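Re: weekly structure request thread

Next one in the queue (125 aa):
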Amino acid sequence: GGGSTAGGSGGKRNISSSDVRGEERAYENDAEFAYEWTARLQKRERMLMEQEADVALVRAKLAISSNELDTARNELLHRHSEASHLRAELSTLVLDTRLRDQQAQETSSHIEQVLALLETIVCTH
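Done, posted below.
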């Protein structure tokens, strides 16, 4: 499909001082008008170039921020993995401690039984 151009007046219009009705002061001739508007356009062009530079700087900062976010996310994933590992180790330790506690209670009751037995032996002799 061919690209169709939007309809317009077609011809290019020459700008003259009479075209700029919003201006407060009148231009004495077309040369002054052209000089003034050339200066304005150059100023606008400089501003646009500065804005483009600002945009490029912001884009660079965004890229850096994006990389920093990726790094931070990887670090978080790593720490989450470490935390899961530590949690598993802790669960093992808790079970181990409970088992040892149970064994200690059994040993303690055995010792009490032996002491009671020794007492009865000592008392009867």
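Confidence is low (pLDDT under 50) at residues 4-9. The chain has one helix and no strands.
Next request, please.
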